[in-house]
Amino acid sequence: MDIGKLLNLVKSIPKEKLKTDAGLKEVIRDLGRKTGKSFTDQELNQYVAQFRRLARTENVNSLLNKLGQKGIKESDLNNIKKRLR
């Protein structure tokens, strides 16, 4: 998926939905539908737990560093940084 499309999807998520587990599950389900995937309740619970863990322990810079380690191109990382400003 194009980085621009992904960032636009993320920006379109209402912040209120990220505050509750039910809202997170709804957001993950919707994103899954947009990418052609469906998730079981167990998978949704795992993704919600993972999101909560990341929200507590990570910041933008550490997430960008992890993306770089996973093989994301430097130009894509620069585009993400520009859009986050």
UniProtKB/TrEMBL annotation:
Domain of life: Bacteria
Protein name: DUF1002 domain-containing protein
Source organism (scientific name): Brevibacillus thermoruber
